[in-house]
Design brief:
VC0802-like, 8-stranded mixed beta sheet, 20% strand, globular, binds aspartic acid
Length: 435
């Protein structure tokens, strides 16, 4: 039995947070592999260490004096080192880094130093071995992960050390150069560790007690989601409910390793468990999420022309402008292309005229005031009448539904409404379907 414990930046923001991490690790001897992000924000106005490193790089590139930024970075590390009486010579390490600072320095290398130093400090503090991600996570030159090499290295390191702290967020190319992942990528490192060591569970420690059934900025005190499937999580995350990096589940998806979202500041809260299959069938709706500012192009074809051909060519048109098509609700003679408004900015007139000028198009209408709300729940499949209830709730609020889409896996129902009705729709759905 083995637990991978990954701690995000807010769980490492100062020495008090380090102390909480230590307590959590000491509470459970199965927590043998710890993955850390870089030191995060202490409060909303604070900067993440990673952001400071990006800033430092920008200063170098534009030849602006960078010492104040370096001093801020040093101060964040020193606060922890001194309060916890660590022996790591962070000043010396930063001085060595300073000597490497020039316009040629690799951005990836520089930015990865946040996780690198944070992991060293944590390793010393909890008395685990520090193992650098550059010895464990291997990328091909195209940026994909070389799993064979990575898994072998991780297994070997674990055999050797038994308890280790690994910096998240980066690995190396075949030539040894550091490659960082996308922002929030330490989640992925945790997942790679869980896969390579066939962990019993992957604990992702953050500053919220799991996922909530709706956005707390919209719904007052929404319930916690106790259990969610990988698939449902993807649907909700896509619609804006973000706690994990969206690629986190890929490395472990086929291994059925559960991920638990836990709160470093409330360590005994059970949080949310993310699994391949959900065995809890009591809750019909798992969550409600949504996004504003979509646009829809509704295209009606002329009688006698081919809808399939028209659809194919219109999709190609959107593709040629690099615009992602989000949904395509359709009827007998017409279909709508729903896209994010922000992607249309400069090209909407070009696209509209290309469509209008086609001889097989009878009519085009564009609606630039659409918000989408997704009601997600694996248990909706087996219960008839859910969609009826959803439409009734929205109808009773006097809100017009502009568009409906149901995923073919019946995992979600998506409704399109006016942007101004976004919050009201979510609240009403939550009130009637969840509470
Ligand atoms: N420190 C990196 C970031 O801020 C990676 C991570 O936190 O996962 O994005």
């Amino acid at each position: 039995m083995l637990k991978i414990a990954k701690f995000g930046g807010s769980s490492l923001a100062n020495h008090q947070q380090f102390q909480k991490v230590k307590q959590i690790i000491e509470q459970d001897p199965l927590r043998k592999v710890v993955v850390v992000s870089a030191i995060g924000r202490r409060d909303a106005r604070d900067a993440k260490l990673t952001d400071l490193l990006y800033l430092l790089h920008a200063h170098l590139m534009y030849s602006v004096p960078y010492e104040p930024v370096l001093a801020m970075i040093e101060e964040r590390f020193l606060e922890i080192k001194e309060a916890l009486h660590l022996s790591i010579d962070i000043k010396k390490q930063l001085l060595a880094l300073k000597k490497e600072l020039n316009k040629q320095i690799s951005l990836d290398y520089l930015v990865s130093r946040g996780e690198y130093f944070t992991a060293q400090m944590m390793a010393e503090y909890i008395n685990f071995a520090f193992v650098d991600a550059s010895e464990l996570v291997f990328f091909y030159f195209d940026g994909s992960i070389d799993y064979e090499k990575t898994e072998n290295a991780i297994r070997k390191a674990f055999q050797e050390h038994e308890q280790m702290v690994v910096p998240g967020f980066y690995g190396v190319y075949p030539n040894g150069a550091i490659r960082i992942m996308a922002r929030g990528g330490s989640d992925i490192t945790g997942s790679i560790m869980a896969r390579s060591l066939s962990a019993t569970v992957y604990e992702n420690w953050t500053d919220v007690s799991g996922l909530l059934m709706a956005d707390p900025r919209i719904v007052v005190s929404p319930k916690r989601i106790a259990q969610i499937t990988y698939e449902e999580l993807r649907e909700l995350a896509y619609m804006g409910a973000n706690v994990l990096h969206e690629e986190t589940i890929f490395p472990i998806q086929d291994m059925n390793i559960p991920i638990v979202i836990l709160n470093t500041n409330d360590a005994f809260n059970p949080g949310t468990i993310i699994t391949q299959v959900g065995d809890d069938t009591t809750q019909v709706i798992t969550g409600i999420a949504g996004k504003k500012h979509f646009a829809s192009f509704t295209i009606t074809k002329h009688n006698g022309s081919s809808k399939t051909k028209l659809m194919r060519e219109i999709l190609a048109l959107f593709e040629s402008y690099h615009i992602n098509v989000e949904h395509i609700p359709s009827s007998i003679d017409s279909f709508s292309i729903v896209v994010l408004q922000a992607e249309l900015d400069k090209v909407i007139y070009d696209i509209a005229s290309s469509i209008k000028n086609r001889s097989d198009v009878k009519n085009l209408t564009i609606d630039q005031d659409i918000a989408l709300v997704a009601i997600v729940g694996r248990n909706m499949v087996t219960r008839p009448g859910i969609s009826g209830k959803i439409f009734a709730v929205i109808g009773n609020e006097g809100i017009n539904i502009k568009m409906i889409a149901q995923g073919s896996n019946e995992l979600n129902i998506i409704v399109g409404i006016s942007n101004e009705h976004f919050e009201k729709t979510i609240c009403a759905l939550y009130q009637h379907l969840v509470v």
